[in-house]
Amino acid sequence: MPTKLLSELKSKEKGKIAKVGGGGSIHRRLLDMGLVSGSEIEVERVAPLGDPMQVRIKGYHLTLRKEEAANIQVEVI
Amino acid sequence: MNREEILRAQEKSLAHLRSVYREDAETVIADARYGFISGLLTEAMRKPAIERRTISDLIDKVLINRWLGIPIFLALLYGVFQFTFTVSVPLMDWIDEGFGWFADQATTISPEWLGSFIGDGIFGGLGSVLVFVPPIFLLFLALAFLEDCGYLARAAFVMDRLMHRIGLHGRSFIPMMLGFGCNVPAIMATRTIENPKDRLTTILINPFMSCGARLPIYILFAGAFFTAHQGLVVFSMYAMGIILAIIMGLVFRKTLLRGPSGHFVMELPPYRLPTITGLVVHMWERGKVFLVRAGTIIFAAVVLIWLLDYTGALEPIGRAIAPIFSPAGFGQWQAAVALVFGLLAKEVVIGTFGTLFTGAEELGGLGDVIGFDLGWTALIAFAFMAMTLIYVPCMAVIGTIRRETNSWKWTVFVIGYTLVLGWIVATLIYQIGSLFT
Predict the structure, then answer these.
(1) Which domain holds residue A54?
(2) Number of structural domains in chain A
(3) What ipTM was assigned to the predicted interfaces of this complex?
(4) How many residue pairs from chains A and B have C-beta atoms closer than 8 A?
(5) What are phi and psi of B51, to 5 degrees?
């Protein structure tokens, strides 16, 4: 299955998280918010100015900047 | 166990986890936690086959829509301002008249100095501060509504890109906008910013947002010296403040407050209808700080200034300070006194001129009298307006900065850097402008 960075996904694209990278506090923060391997994730929309993006994960809405989303590898479904 | 042993044991466990899972400990713990949760959920909860679109999702489809997101955000912000100032104007008039009435009654008290102290000092001085209670509380009420219903998180989502560009966080935008109303609630509103450096930067540059108290000053001088371009001149003051805020924000973020901006990994909560109790509690919790301060630090300042005025110490003080401002064109003692008084509240700058040039009404307006008596030109008036915009924020704001930063060091820093910056800008305006006139 092709993997992409979450930041490269377009609105309405879905996938399964393959790996969460990044170091230090951002890594921990992403994990804390439920971005763990195997979770399904869907890009819901991008903010009017093109950044940050809004995703749906574990049944709730999360926003994150693209630079933060670039730490997450997603298997696109 | 001592520290070394604990650290060794920790290292060992971490190495063990890494060798077994081929992942770092944080990931292993998070995976295990969410694995456990999803196990529980499959046992205990039945999920609908298709995920339903909730009302929240539908509202978001419109409110943070790619095209409508920014217009709606600006419209809501405008609505907050309209609400705050429309509703507070009559309330402010009442407070003003009420304190004015008490002040008038007090002047009959004898001995004369006591009447002046109670009338001009206490009622006059405190009244000029307490008139800000309605806009502050109403602004907090409107803000509490946006926060409690869940829109504030969306506003940060919409504006983050722009604020991130200038080294700040999406959550800095609302406090900056609130600064146009009053910098006191604006600085208190920075509490929603989690990253300490983002928050401190937002506090440090907030006074450059022209608050409502500065508008009367702009209007007075623009009306008297720039009859043809009043609107443009007033607008240029607002624009100058915004540009300075951006420049100083970038400077602070690259020097004193260097470091990464806060993350933007944030939940968008579902929309909820705020409760009245919740709104009132929010409004009161934030607003009462202003009331407490009005009763302490501001009160003390009011008494001091009355004392200086009553004992005739004011003119010598003005004359001592005035030469500093000569390079900026307004080196008259009256201007220096007005600037000193303006520390109490910026609109007191006008009140001071009003007291020093009594009988202005018969002479065709206070602005004209200032021009005539002090020999001010449009250029000097413009430099003076810039000075009132930039130099030391008012007492209430200084007190708020002290409270919110919990640091005298940063409070003194704000006083110092705004004073120096104000002097530099006013002097540049006057000196460069003089080359062309």
Answers:
(1) 3-76
(2) 1
(3) 0.94
(4) 89
(5) -75, 125
